[in-house]
Amino acid sequence: xxxxxxxxxxxxxxxxxxxxxxxxxxxxxxxxxxxxxxxxxxxxxxxxxxxxxxxxxxxxxxxxxxxxxxxxxxxxxxxxxxxxxxxxxxxxxxxxxxxxxxxxxxxxxxxxxxxxxxxxxxxxxxxxxxxxxxxxxxxxxxxxxxxxxxxxxxxxxxxxxxxxxxxxxxxxxxxxxxxxxxxxxxxxxxxxxxxxxxxxxxxxxxxxxxxxxxxxxxxxxxxxxxxxxxxxxxxxxxxxxxxxxxxxxxxxxxxxxxxxxxxxxxxxxxxxxxxxxxxxxxxxxxxxx
Length: 289
Ligand code: G4P
What we know:
By secondary structure, the chain is of the alpha/beta class. It has helices at residues 7-21, 44-47, 65-76, 93-103, 105-113, 133-141, 183-192, 202-216, 218-225, 237-250, 262-274; strands at 26-32, 53-58, 81-84, 121-127, 160-163, 167-170, 174-175. The structure holds guanosine-5',3'-tetraphosphate (G4P). The site of guanosine-5',3'-tetraphosphate has 17 residues, from helix 6.
């Protein structure tokens, strides 16, 4: 899908989420564990202000576990509990419920002390497109429940989806937008496949990605493409193009005449990265506090 946001969309999406916030106890902010900040709405703190919030680092099966641990610390340093999850093949329901209960412990305690039976925790999942919201809702619901495909402007009657006995989810997630103005953010979103159709050229995205891999995951790169070495200086564009040509040649991505087809090579690298063929890779480091 193409993500296109205009000021009107943003205002409407924000208003819709804020209307939903009135109905819920806890917001579940879904991020892509491979690019936690780039997959985050820049105004999220403002939009969700005052609501207890659980951060989920989804697609953690594809992310570097050491980097995920650093990201959890990063969020903890900002007063947010973050939990790595795998909505596609994991079973995160129990962990999510436990964390939500922790977040709402005071409220639950109050209800109990008044002799009330705590009612189901009501939650809303929010996140940018393709971060795994529908997959997670389906997983939590234990069936194919979520309406897939994002239509930010569409309003429907709200429905609650039961998650066991103690939790209820709003059936439509809150859909947010990433920070498009930042070129590197766009590159990371494109590299992970969050933006499927893009104005960015595959070669640009692959070059950006390969620079990061050469700097942070040289062994994974060497191993996957049987390379003897990778450039010491990933900012050296000539060297990086040579690396890409090298990969293309090894994989037979050639044009007639035997020249390396850089576009084909780029698409191949990106496809393999997204499929986890280079191992578990995170494309963004937390900035120090
Ligand atoms: P959205 O509602 O936030 O837009 O995201 P959605 O659930 O549609 O998920 C987007 C893509 O991410 C889907 O793949 C989905 O399978 C995949 N995905 C979601 N959670 C995880 C996860 O924890 N790990 C991995 N590896 N992938 C995950 P797709 O290629 O768009 O569709 P399909 O292959 O499932 O048909």
